Amino acid sequence: MHRRVPRPTVVAVAAVIASIGFGGIAQAQFWPDRPITFAGGRVLLAGDASGTFGSDDPGWFTYTDYETDSLRRVRAGVTIEVRPSRRLAFLTEIRAETGAGVVPYAWYVRVSPLKNGWLDVQAGRIPPVFGTYARRSYPQDNPLIGDPLGYQYLTSARPDAVPANADQLLKMRGHGWLVKYPVGSAVAEPGVPVVAAGRWDTGVEVRVGTPRLEGAAAYTVGTLSYPLVRDDNHGKQLAGRIVWRPVPAFAIGASAAQGAFISHDVLTARSDIPDARYDERAVGLDGEASWGRWLLRGELVANSWKLPPLDQPRITDPLGAVNGYVEVKIRMGPRLYVAARGDQLRFSTIQGTAGAATWDANVARVEIGVGYTLRRGLLVKASMMNNWRDGGRIRQSRLAAAQALFWF
Amino acid sequence: MLPRSAPHRPPAPLAGGLFGVLLLAASAHGTAGAEGIIRGVVDLRRIQVTIEARAASAAMGIPSRRPAELRPAVVYLDTAPRGAFELEEAARATMDQRDQTFVPHVLAITVGTTVDFPNSDLVFHNVFSLSKTRSFDLGRYSRGHSKSVRFDSPGVVQVFCDIHSHMSAYILVFAHRYFAVTDAAGRYAIGRLPPGSYTVAVWHEGEVRETRVVTVPEGGGAVEAAFAIR
Q: Does A205 touch chain B (CB under 8 A)?
């Protein structure tokens, strides 16, 4: 399901950071602090690089796959936009990242038929419309170092392998970093987060709106937790989002998505799998309020995965997961800010042979941090987080991390 | 003369501090006589304003659109006449935030001027600067509100919005009054100059692009000096 990391990639990304980012300190006047344009503005080049180093995480709270700890990674990316006309643009983002190698993270064409820009159609590997965090997961858009649990924490759900009964699922509680089930792929792989912020889905997106009221809908081949480039189950996802900004200080959004989650290989692995829809469904609410030096954000996502009911004790109900977080950022001055996030990820209860339990272990996280801008486009952050989990080998983990970011 | 490849470095009369003022006062070459004017045209170039720095960072992944802009230059005397530093009473200027743009993009003021930053947009803005000349952070505020900053030291202040990364502007704070911001056609005029030789500098988008010695004759009058932004 996930690619293994070629170690030279890590070295290469580190070299990029060293040469572009920190090397720039010595020759500050030569490094860019804004996107570079060519051909009279028809070609735009932007980039970012970051390095994060944090304490060891033996509880796997901050991993984004089996080998990648989000607190120990380097990342570099370039965004290229080619705009042949005011109504047509081609965009791509290529990213090199620890654990992922070099990936064309986004590539899509944008058509804007209206002169006022109130209607856009995008096709390709497109920005997600659901929620807010997946579109602001760039390091400089995240005031802290960790991600919200719903967008990063690996649950024990997998699209390409499923448990045959509830006991097999319960055995994997708190074990999302490496999950193995008997139906489908026999390889142990990480589970999926509720919403995958690290990868984008492929399809078509239509966005319409004004600055006060905006809506978007997307038709893609993957799902929120498992975005894809190529369809693996002949099912599509429909996702939508609407945002209302009654006043500049406040925005509230609502999102929904439904799409086929279980891969075709699982559905054909056993002949007794009922012919039904095995979807991922999600609804989300988010809000943002700000005034003066304060920025307050919150988001609530309720998600469910429907698995095939196979052996006793059967998994009859969809596997539910609810994530909610509240985040605050306070600017203390032109260079300094402090931030904090409180975060919970809770799972629904299923019935096993030994009794009822949540199908995965509930998790909570509190993270506090500070950011300091060394110069335009160069930010350093430090944070501490406490994680709690009611299952798994390690139930509590206190982690610290520092991060340096450069972007233009 | 400053190296031309040094963006964002303050030009000499803007460098700030008592040292700069005394140095410039002593280096003045103006003499008594009819006043003159240095005027001309700066051949400006259009700058493409980049709205969407990263594909994912814009709301819904959709950027605003904006054509290339003709951004003004500032023409000033690198060496000013004696008495140039006897500034008049503190002034007031405005840098608006309109259509997610600072208006004007370049503001040239004298030391002691207070600049108002009204927000005329429907969205929030957060004006700030990390410049050594004057760092400040006005926080977030909405349409109809305004906050002010007084600039007491000469130098270049680059202004940004913390919410909209494509918004930027320059405030050039001078210790004397011999400067001019070019108009839409690139025209400028620096008047009330005593006869003498002056080093005229052209600043554009964070860099001193050209300096040239221009002489105002004893009889005063207008002296033409044209520049081109390369």
A: yes
